[in-house]
Each structure stands twice: as structure tokens, then as C-alpha cells.
Amino acid sequence: MTAKSAAAAARATVYGYPRQGQGRELKKAIEGYWKGRVDADALRATATELRRTNWRQLAEAGIHEVPTGDFSYYDHVLDTSVMVGAIPERHRAAVEADALDGYFAMARGTQDAAPLEMTKWFDTNYHYLVPELGPDTVFTADSTQQVTALVQALALGLTARPVLVGPVTYLLLAKPAPGVAADFDPLTLLDRLLPVYAQVLTDLRTTGAEWVQLDEPALVQDRTPAELNAAARAYRDLGGRTDRPKLLVASYFDRLGDALPVLAKAPVEGLALDFTEAAAANLDALAAVGGLPGKRLVAGVVNGRNIWVNDLEKALATLGTLLGLADRVDVAASCSLLHVPLDATAERDIEPQILRWLAFARQKTAEIVTLAKGLGGGTDTIAAELAANRADLASRAGSALTHDPAVRARTAAVTATDGRRSQPYPERAAAQRAHLRLPLLPTTTIGSFPQTTELRTARADLRAGRIDSAGYEERIRAEIGEVISFQEKTGLDVLVHGEAERNDMVQYFAEQLTGYLATQHGWVQSYGTRYVRPPILAGDISRPEAMTVRWTTYAQSLTAKPVKGMLTGPVTMLAWSFVRDDQPLADTAQQVALALRDEVNDLEAAGTSVIQVDEPALRETLPLRACDHPEYLAWATEAFRLTTAGVRPDTQIHTHMCYAEFGDIVQAIDDLDADVISLEAARSHMQVARELAGHGYPREAGPGVYDIHSPRVPGADEAAALLRRGLEAIPAERLWVNPDCGLKTRAWPETRASLENLVTAARTVRTELSAS
After folding, report:
1. Has 656 been annotated as catalytic?
2. Catalytic residue, candidates 91, 497, 656, 709
């Protein structure tokens, strides 16, 4: 096909779409099902209607080929485990008794069976459930969910393309099941898994699929020759079968590198590549392999992970370069639109001109359609859209919001000493022990406590004008008083105020900093039914006034025990926001760090002796390629130190991280120079404690003994057992006892019972240590 005919054939598509619905109908239906208010048929009906609505929106916008299989009740990787029959033995009976309840048991656990481990989906804030595999794993095909969705889409008269997690990525994301040797490599199961994928592909072809998309984002990471050979074998096997649909292999989030020649040579009909995060690298690599003659190329030229309007002319130039490199060039977002909110037009509190800078899923869909039209028919066919786009880009670039001379002057004045504590850790630790007088194995929580119905009602009443600020603040005081009273009665050693006033650990601060925009309806799935509204980092950042001092000081007035000041760190403020794309992330991180430094110093001046600066996103923001790690970790750790280094030696700085793989950033954790770090460890059975020990981490640490992302209540014996395992790696004088993460999403009954068991476990192990 000539470049001209390739352009004329260009079509618009997407890899996935937000699942929740405009009013988060899916979240409400699922949580209603868990509470017994919604039955299974009603839940399925809600899901069916949401899928139908999504497909119709896409088709009406001009998308030529809609995705199926991207919709999930909880997580698409968990759906893949169900599809291939990789059900953990502890959940098998539940799945056989009731498939839906068993599915949710794997995701959330039960009182008798722990859930699957959860961690971040590459470098995003989406969490997936980690497959558990072993040498005895037997895979069996169950394409029910995938076939059902395809049938529904075809019944609407739509051209539909099922989207599946690819077999290589699925195995590379997996871990050895409990009881399996830690060095077991799930990729050794590839030959056992491929026939199951082949059966699913056959089922989808029989149902009517012309194309099936197999997502292989793991191939954009550094891969060994053996892993690349496995990818070549997988697609030689699947592509060589005759009873299959056409195969589109997709990668995203970074450049494919050495995997591109492997996939280009594979007997598949198409590739989908990211031309936003790694446009130049993928373009060069594609040209180096001689393009994709005879194949379909789906070009991800619209950023699927951020919310700024696309530069349409720049994207068209990229698309024009790609013409002639493939038999057919189609237009898409760089990845699934799962990672952005649904519709910017729902926002009423953002200035109309600024709103024109933003593109959520529906607006990105329109951009994709516009680009496909322009590629096929020429720029004259989209002249009005190009003119409006140029005006929007110019408006943003010239706005006073994006440039604050005072902020720029302050960051320019930062020196290396501003990011260094005044004394080394051993001297600080001695001063902190003398000042705080904590027991061996001190107990604490991570920060938030359950957000009660009364509290959420009060917040809604304040927004609606049904109560005034005085009435709302009285509710906050009451909540803080209850949280402090409970912690004292339970026997925790370092308390928190519970964060009753906070809607979200990032949004709360963003709403008080200049340069941020907040949304009302910009919900994005984090995991399961947990949705967040990432704020938008639109301009230079500064802190007009103190943000947390008032409520922290009030909580401290209610107790003689230390109450932690609680802040969200600069890297997490970036990672869990939609960041500006017009300056380096390092510059934005430094601006946020200086604003937070002011808050840390004000907390200390108000008498706060323990200050926690959470950085759960430090690992998730790590670039996917090792060669990019040093630069990122240098500015990320420097931003944390710039935030925290201005305090006295006897002020104890904590940080917290959760639900990521920490082994490959232990040196960076050390470089933060925090006095205490708390980390998720319950689901991974204290793996992080062993990793810290292996590194020789010299400071105090609290690997979690209570998995807060499950409704189950761990017994005191279970918590004590985890604590003893932690002691195998970390000396008692440096070990803290705490949950994995904050308690905001938990209910009070399970929180009370779990924390009481946690304190009992700590006391039990203290007694054992004193007797030994």
C-alpha cells in the first residue's frame, strides 16, 4: 500500500475506556453488592449498561473500532487470571461455589483466605492483582467474560476488537505462589500457557472477532535475551495458528527497544506503539527495522495518561512520518484511557478558558477522530479544529498561571546544603530517643482513619450549603477527638489525628497551593472501587499559608503522647496529579518541595515532634528503563530532602511507601535520609524487611503487619508472626509496628479490632524479647 492509500485508510480507535461511568455507577453497584443491597443480577445489569454506554459514546464520536474486554469489575489482570484458570488454591472452593464471590475473594480476601498481592501497573497509579504461579500451576481456558462482551458489542452493530493482557506480560507480572521457591520463574510456564491463549483466540474468532489486541507493555522494560526469545516464541506460536483472528500486539508507556525487531518479525498482522512517551525512539527503531510492510500500525499519538490538549499539528507530523512504514496507519491514544477522567465538560468550577486546555477521555477521543480525519483527508478537512487547537495551546503558554517570578527566584536560590540535615543519623537518633522516650517496638498507624458516613455527609452538606463552616469544623473536632481517644485507649505509642478534614492525601494539599487546579468529577480508578480525583499541576507552585498546623496542634492538645504531623511528599504530589508537560518534572518537584518545607518548619515551630512526609509514589514513578533511573532518583530524593532537612535533630522525620516493588530502589530509600520509614509488607510476607536488611539499611523501619486493603481482621497471633519475621531482618531497637497503609477506606469495626490485635502482638513480642 502506498503512503497515500495508507493515509486514506486511517481509522480511529482506542485501547480502553474509563469503566466507572459518569456518576461512578460501577463503584456504587459493586459496593452495594458487597453490602448485600444489590444482587448479582442487578450488578451485572449495571455493568452491561455501562459497557453499552461507553461503546455508543465511542461510536458516536467517530471511533471506528471499539475495544471489548477492557471493562472489569475490579482489575483486568485479575480477569486474565480467571481467563487462564490461574486460581490460587486457597480461593478455588470459593470460585467453584460462586464465580462472582470467588472473584471478589481473590481481590479483597476473606476472613479465612488472604487476597492476591496488589502492586502498581508499571509506572502508573493503577494497581493490579499479582498472579500467583508455581511449577504445579495448571492453566485452563475460560473465555466467558471476553466472549460475552464481544457478543454485546457486535449486537449493537459495532466493529469491536477484544483487548487481552498478552501472555508474556502476564507471566512477567506474576510471582511465585506462597510455598513456591522464591527463585521460581513464571516465564517457564509459557509453553503451558500458550495453548490456553490459543483457545481463547479461537473462541473469539468463532464469536466474530476480526482482530484481537494482545497488550505487552512489559516489553518496553529492560528485557534479557531469554525473555525476548520467549516473546518471539510466543508470537511465533500464536501467529502460526490458522484458527485465530488477526493479532494486534500493543506496547505503551515507553520505547520498545530490543523488543521491536522481535515483534516486527513475528507472524502477527499489526503492532500498536506509543508515540508520545517515546516518539523519537520508536520512530527511529521502526525505520531501522524497515518499517512494517504488510502490517497494520496503530499509532498512539494522543497522550492517554495526561489531561492536556494534544498538539494536533505535532501529532499530524508524526503520523505523516509513519506513512509508508506500514500497510495501514491508524490513530489511537498512547495507552488505555483508563488513566484519565471521563469528560472535562462536566467541570463547572474551572474557568472556561482554562478548561479548553484540558482533554479527558471524551475529549481525547475527539482528538483521535480529528487526527484520523486529517490524516486521511488532509489538513484542509480539519482546518477549524487546528486553528482552535493553536489558540488553546497559545492561551496556556501565555497564561500568568504558568509563571510566577517569585517562585522561580526562590528555586534558583536553592543550594546543596538546603537538602542536608544538620547532624548525621546516629546523632539524630540519640536526640530523638531522649526526646520521645518511646518503648521498644513502638506502635503507630500510617495517618488516616476511617472516613465515617457522618463525616462524608457533613462534607457534602458543607458543599451544598446545608451547614456553615463552623458546623463542619465542629464535626472535624469531634472526629479528631474520637480518633485520639481510641488510640490512647488501645495503647498506640505515636498517634495521628486521623485526617478527618482531608478528602484525599494529594487533593487536600493541592487545593491549598497556588498553581494547582482541582476537579469535581475527574475520577480515575486507582484499584477496585477506589477512585481518586488527581489534581492538575497547571502552574508554578507556592504555599500561601499553613495547611495542616491547625488540626495537628488541636489533636496534640488532647494527648500527652506525640501526634504525627502528616504531609504528602513532593514526588507523590507529582505522581498522583496530572503534571504540567511544559517544564521538566525535576523543576516542578523542587517547587512543590519548597512549599512543603515551609509546612514542615511551621509544624515543628508549633511543637510537632514527629512529622511524616509520605512518598508512596517514589517507586511507581521510577522510569521503566534502567538507564533513566539515576537522573530520576537524583532529583526525587533531593526533593524529599529539601522538604525535610530544615528541622532540628530531635524532630523525627518519617516517610511511608506502599504497594510497589521496593527492592530495586533501596539505595534511594536510604538516600532520603528519613529517620523512620513504614512500608507495605503484609501481603508480601515481610519481603521488604529482608530487602532493607540485605542493603544494610541503617535507620528505623516499620514493615506493615496489617493489610488494610482487605476487610479481613488479622488476628494478634498472625500480626505477631509477621512481626517476628520482621525481627529476623531488622533489630528490635529499629523496628516499628504499624499497618501497611492508611485506614481511610476501612470501616471502624474492623479498624478497631485490627489495631487492638496489632498492639497486642507488639506487647507479646516485647515480652518475648525481654524474656530472651
Report:
1. no
2. 709
